[in-house]
């Protein structure tokens, strides 16, 4: 029986990689261990509903803060990914069959947590014809039924190997925000995200806007992987050309010695410079801090995102 708590079994594709030194984190990147009652309540609801979260599976540093406020990013379609990205701590291998009751359990957890804004993400499921698009759509509809006033953000895979129509299936379910992360600059894709294609991901987000111009789109990258400032600014330009509304930029943190090494820790001042540059390029919303992650403060950010669009249209 495979034990996902054991690194070599969690990441068999990385087991024979040479160890990469994990540098000491600077003071601005450290967080306290989670201990609050709110954290425990959120954890218990996740356990009771047999749900996975990207917060735990990816080792997010913000889990204590978010869960203490009752915010969790649900990860559907299991906890085993068919890809082996070198930055990611989600387990890799052959996934189990889809659980047809999972959308209902997610909706129940959203209702019980009283979430005003919920983020739904997933592992990559290249083993499925539609990449899991219909499962996303069913989950969106289940949440709408249980919690009609909640806004929904999806953080999807790239559907690179999926049958035609997969993206349309998700968009037709009408999430409020469609997020798909580019993760890094194109030159680093072979080393960091070898199973993906930069321009395919960019085109995916552009197509969302073509299918539904009113839908908010969002994407993010990590820094500290070996990129330079010029390449980050070029990604911003590429995103704006695809009419992406919201960009996130956060510090890459190396999960284990077998993962891609941290090239450097980007300073808070540099993040502030990226934020200023991104706003200057026309994004409606930007989050650029060392601890920024795709779903960090997603509810508050969505409210500001919606207000920014109204302001731009002269309706605020």
TrEMBL record:
<dbReference type="GO" id="GO:0009249">
    <property type="term" value="P:protein lipoylation"/>
</dbReference>
<feature type="binding site">
    <location>
        <position position="55"/>
    </location>
    <ligand>
        <name>[4Fe-4S] cluster 1</name>
    </ligand>
</feature>
<dbReference type="InterPro" id="IPR007197">
    <property type="entry name" value="rSAM"/>
</dbReference>
<comment type="similarity">
    <text>Belongs to the radical SAM superfamily. Lipoyl synthase family.</text>
</comment>
<dbReference type="Pfam" id="PF04055">
    <property type="entry name" value="Radical_SAM"/>
</dbReference>
<dbReference type="Pfam" id="PF16881">
    <property type="entry name" value="LIAS_N"/>
</dbReference>
<dbReference type="InterPro" id="IPR058240">
    <property type="entry name" value="rSAM_sf"/>
</dbReference>
<feature type="binding site">
    <location>
        <position position="88"/>
    </location>
    <ligand>
        <name>[4Fe-4S] cluster 2</name>
    </ligand>
</feature>
<keyword id="KW-0411">Iron-sulfur</keyword>
<keyword id="KW-0408">Iron</keyword>
<feature type="binding site">
    <location>
        <position position="81"/>
    </location>
    <ligand>
        <name>[4Fe-4S] cluster 2</name>
    </ligand>
</feature>
<keyword id="KW-0808">Transferase</keyword>
<feature type="binding site">
    <location>
        <position position="66"/>
    </location>
    <ligand>
        <name>[4Fe-4S] cluster 1</name>
    </ligand>
</feature>
<protein>
    <recommendedName>
        <fullName>Lipoyl synthase</fullName>
        <ecNumber>2.8.1.8</ecNumber>
    </recommendedName>
</protein>
<keyword id="KW-0004">4Fe-4S</keyword>
<feature type="domain" description="Radical SAM core">
    <location>
        <begin position="67"/>
        <end position="284"/>
    </location>
</feature>
<feature type="binding site">
    <location>
        <position position="295"/>
    </location>
    <ligand>
        <name>[4Fe-4S] cluster 1</name>
    </ligand>
</feature>
<keyword id="KW-0963">Cytoplasm</keyword>
<keyword id="KW-0949">S-adenosyl-L-methionine</keyword>
<dbReference type="InterPro" id="IPR013785">
    <property type="entry name" value="Aldolase_TIM"/>
</dbReference>
<dbReference type="InterPro" id="IPR003698">
    <property type="entry name" value="Lipoyl_synth"/>
</dbReference>
<feature type="region of interest" description="Disordered">
    <location>
        <begin position="1"/>
        <end position="27"/>
    </location>
</feature>
<keyword id="KW-0479">Metal-binding</keyword>
<dbReference type="GO" id="GO:0016992">
    <property type="term" value="F:lipoate synthase activity"/>
</dbReference>
<dbReference type="GO" id="GO:0046872">
    <property type="term" value="F:metal ion binding"/>
</dbReference>
<dbReference type="GO" id="GO:0051539">
    <property type="term" value="F:4 iron, 4 sulfur cluster binding"/>
</dbReference>
<comment type="pathway">
    <text>Protein modification; protein lipoylation via endogenous pathway; protein N(6)-(lipoyl)lysine from octanoyl-[acyl-carrier-protein]: step 2/2.</text>
</comment>
<dbReference type="InterPro" id="IPR031691">
    <property type="entry name" value="LIAS_N"/>
</dbReference>
<dbReference type="InterPro" id="IPR006638">
    <property type="entry name" value="Elp3/MiaA/NifB-like_rSAM"/>
</dbReference>
<feature type="binding site">
    <location>
        <position position="60"/>
    </location>
    <ligand>
        <name>[4Fe-4S] cluster 1</name>
    </ligand>
</feature>
<feature type="binding site">
    <location>
        <position position="85"/>
    </location>
    <ligand>
        <name>[4Fe-4S] cluster 2</name>
    </ligand>
</feature>
<dbReference type="GO" id="GO:0005737">
    <property type="term" value="C:cytoplasm"/>
</dbReference>
């Amino acid at each position: 029986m495979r034990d996902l708590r054991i690194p070599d079994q969690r990441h068999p594709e990385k087991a024979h990689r040479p160890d990469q030194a994990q540098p000491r984190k600077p003071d601005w990147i450290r967080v306290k261990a989670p201990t609050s009652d709110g954290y425990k309540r959120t954890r218990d609801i996740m356990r009771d509903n047999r749900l996975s979260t990207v917060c735990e599976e990816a080792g997010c540093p913000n889990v204590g803060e978010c869960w203490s406020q009752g915010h969790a990013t649900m990860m559907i379609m299991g906890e085993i990914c068919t890809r082996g990205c070198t930055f990611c701590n989600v387990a890799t291998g052959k996934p189990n069959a889809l659980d047809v009751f999972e959308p209902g359990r997610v909706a129940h957890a959203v209702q019980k947590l009283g979430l005003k804004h919920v983020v739904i993400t997933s592992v990559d499921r290249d083993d499925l014809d539609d990449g899991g698009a219909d499962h996303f759509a069913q989950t969106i509809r289940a949440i709408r039924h249980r919690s009609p006033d909640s806004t929904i953000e999806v953080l999807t895979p790239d559907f690179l190997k999926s049958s035609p129509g997969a993206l349309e299936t998700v968009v037709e379910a009408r999430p409020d925000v469609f997020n798909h992360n580019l993760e890094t600059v194109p030159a680093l894709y072979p080393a960091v995200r070898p199973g993906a294609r930069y321009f395919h991901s960019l085109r995916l987000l552009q197509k969302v806007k073509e299918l539904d111009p009113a839908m908010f789109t969002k994407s993010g990258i990590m820094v500290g992987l070996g990129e330079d400032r010029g390449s980050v600014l070029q990604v911003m330009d590429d995103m704006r050309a695809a009419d992406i509304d919201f960009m996130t930029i956060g510090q890459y943190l190396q999960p284990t010695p077998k993962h891609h090494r941290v090239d450097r820790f980007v300073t808070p001042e540099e993040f502030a410079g990226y934020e200023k540059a991104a706003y200057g390029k026309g994004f409606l919303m930007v989050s650029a801090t060392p601890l920024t992650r795709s779903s960090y403060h997603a509810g508050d950010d969505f409210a500001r995102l919606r207000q920014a669009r109204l302001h731009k249209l002269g309706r605020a």
